[in-house]
């Protein structure tokens, strides 16, 4: 099951990068997704993948809300925090975590530390 999720994730990334859904591009994308090396680490549990994908679905409306907040009430305070990576995360799940944090307009991952931390840049409204 996890192998299919890796292939689907690679295909989605391919189609986002190429922005082309022609037959030739689909064939090339499937070939690239299958020929890329498979992860050597232990795969994440299906439950973790589904939970991460559920968080991304929830983040879509949150991103729109945050975008409108930034338009109508500009945020002037910035700060960088460190967030711990959840234990036993596969590289694919770490990528989805970084994507989830970066997807919303008020946050972006500045750096991923191999020892299990993300540096996250955030903006917020000035406290009155």
Helix/strand class = alpha+beta
Annotation field: number of helices = 4
Number of domains: 2
| Helix-strand topology string | HHHEHEE
Low-confidence stretches: none
Report how far apart the termini are.
51 Å
Query: Kindly state the mean pLDDT as a whole number?
Result: 85
**Strand fraction band?**
15-25%
Strand numbers in spatial order across the main sheet = 1-3-2
Q: Main sheet? A: 3 strands, antiparallel
CATH topology (fold) name of the largest domain: Ribosomal Protein S8, Chain: A, domain 1
Helix content: 40-55%
The CATH class designation of the largest domain is Alpha Beta
Tell me the number of strands: 3
Give the overall shape. globular
Query: What is the CA-based Rg, rounded?
Result: 17 Å
Examine the secondary-structure arrangement and name the CATH architecture of the largest domain. 2-Layer Sandwich
Notes on the structure:
The protein has about 130 residues and is of the alpha+beta class. The protein has two domains: about 1-40; about 45-128, 2-Layer Sandwich (Ribosomal Protein S8, Chain: A, domain 1), CATH 3.30.1370. The protein contains four helices and three strands. The chain has helices at about 1-20, 25-35, 45-70, 90-105; strands at about 75-85, 105-115, 115-125. Helix 1 packs across helix 2 and helix 3 (about 45-70) packs parallel to helix 4 (about 90-105). The longest helix is centred in the middle third of the chain and has 27 residues, at about 45-70. The N and C termini lie far apart (about 50 Å).
